[in-house]
Design brief:
The complex is a heterotetramer, with two copies of chain A and two copies of chain B.
Chain A (H helix, E strand, L loop, with lengths): L1 E4 L5 H7 L9 E8 L7 E8 L3 H16 L2 E9 L1 E3 L4 E9 L2 H18 L2 E7 L3 E3 L4 H6 L1 H5 L4
Parallel strand pairs in A: 1-4
Antiparallel strand pairs in A: 2-6, 3-5, 3-7, 4-6, 7-8
Helix pairs in contact in A: 2-3
Chain B lengths: L1 E5 L1 H7 L3 E4 L6 H11 L1 H6 L7 E4 L2 E3 L10 E5 L6
Parallel strand pairs in B: 1-5
Antiparallel strand pairs in B: 1-2, 3-4, 3-5
Classes of the chains: A alpha+beta, B alpha+beta.
């Protein structure tokens, strides 16, 4: 399931509902992204997105994960709009019979969402405002999934 | 006629998020050249296309891709999702 | 935080409470282990443990994870006793500034809990009862963490 | 006097989970030999120690480790946690 929304959500509630009542699942992995403000200088994080393309791009990434791993279920929720420090930005959850598939698929989804889903983050601080720059290491992380195909 | 979209700092530099353009440009690069020639703010925004990405009809593409039949072109900086 | 208990728990509630209100966290990873019964032959899974040693062994694994990665918080909950198919066996959660540390630490904790925490699973089916055998691949998974130390 | 604990199928084969033993065994292997010599069920349970693990005072150890000062010895099959 995929949701792109401005409303806040509780990853715990989503996890409780995810893959509930299924008996063919042994492992569930979740990732939650949170607005970080280690230096206590951030006022707001604004997340811009490309409506329409966002859903297409994420659906494609989810389909790719389902092709690569045997997944019983996949969930992606991603927010846009203005978020405060400590708020949840997004979550990913994967369910599989075995733990390796659930871990790898969640890791894969995160790497692709970082660099291939059309979101842009802007940090509005007390004194300065700046668009978050894409990191070389995030682009490089994608190579992990192309060089050696996972089982 | 083609819809051209701008996101993030590109949108801010150009001063708008979407416009409808009449163009004969054969490729994305041709379209970028046309935009650069329009006004200073476009020239500055598109100064270095290696730091930009382009999507054609909502699919990531390349700057040398043809615009044949494309209805929506979007320009933006590298994405920072997740 | 570590809890070894026979009572059931809701991983979603635990995730909601985990690392709450902290602004130095950007990434939370959770793993939930579930009693799997793909073939619908299982009646009960009985988990035996070694009281005292269980807590010591898991605490040691958690300390090792905190030494290897920069973690803001770590949670392990593991049940023992009789569980039904679909019930949650255990969960792990890790919180860090960055996603790689949170993912790797959760993966590490799971590998060590599998083979180094004193639990033994017994599957009671309609027709047969058997102790779950340790898998060679689970023992081999530990090598991932000794051959190349993570950053 | 030493506390000896058995878990999982080892506990089931021996028929008890814990016993107090008076022993002069110098190492775990010596203790295993003593146990094997006691009764058939012990001999069978400890037939192949390569498929067993041992913990001394709740720390994983080896079968050739000394028992000096150890108060609790636990034998069990490879663990299946998680």
């Amino acid at each position: 399931m995929l949701r792109v929304q401005s409303d806040s959500f509780d990853p715990g509630k989503e996890l409780s509902a995810f893959a509930k009542g299924r008996h063919d699942i042994g492992a569930i992995v979740s990732f939650t992204g949170v607005v970080r403000d280690t230096d206590k200088t951030l006022k707001t994080m604004e997340i811009e997105h490309y409506p329409g393309m966002t859903e297409r791009a994420i659906s494609k990434i989810m389909d790719e994960a389902r092709t690569r791993w045997n997944l019983a279920d996949v969930l992606v929720i991603h927010r846009h709009g203005a978020l405060q420090p400590g708020e949840v930005i997004m979550m990913v959850a994967t369910a599989s019979a075995h733990r390796a598939a659930a871990f790898e698929a969640a890791d894969f989804l995160m790497d692709y969402l970082k660099s291939r889903a059309p979101f842009w983050k802007k940090e509005i601080g007390a004194n300065e405002t700046a668009w978050v720059a894409a990191k070389d290491e995030d682009e490089a992380a994608l190579d992990r999934w192309t060089s050696s195909p996972p089982d | 006629m083609i819809d051209v979209l701008y996101f993030a700092w590109l949108r801010e530099r150009i001063g708008l998020g979407r416009e409808r353009i009449s163009t004969q440009a054969a490729t994305v690069n041709d379209l970028v050249d046309e935009l650069r020639a329009r006004e200073e703010r476009y020239a500055l925004a598109f100064e270095d296309t290696s730091s930009l990405r382009v999507a054609l009809d909502q699919e990531l593409s390349d700057f040398d891709a043809p615009l044949d039949g494309v209805r929506e072109v979007a320009f933006f900086p590298p994405m920072t999702g997740g």
